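Troubleshooting log. The previous structure file for this entry was overwritten by mistake, so regenerating from the original sequence record. Sequence copied from the archived sheet and checked twice against the printout by T.R.
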Amino acid sequence: MTTAFSLAPLLRSTIGFDRFSDLEAERSYPPYNIEKRGDDNYAITMAVAGFTRKDLNIVAQSDRVVVSGRIEAKEVDGVEYLYKGIAARAFERTFRLADHLKVTGAEVNDGLLRIELVREVPEAQKPRSIEIRQAA
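Regenerated output below.
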């Protein structure tokens, strides 16, 4: 009997890696998706319900993207919560990026933060075909 297992859950915080990489601790808040949108295009989509654009911060640095969010406590007069299930706690999540992967933009819409990424491999590092000549 063989037991198959997948390493995919271990690589959730890495984008653009085709090989096994260093692992980072998996956290569950906020939930997110990592999407491959073409050969060289990726996106990170995070569920950030209750956060506005000014509550979020994205910092791209070398091989990482750090996304953080903090909502200032707001009290609403006359409101008593019987159950508060919409999480609005502060967070910071770091995503490791593969070589040549760059953040090209971000937008927040309907409670989802989408971070666009593109792989830009320098021409000198792209694979090229080498002609084989016949020996004289």
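The domain at 26-73+87-120 is CATH 2.60.40.790 (Immunoglobulin-like). Archived copy saved in two places this time.
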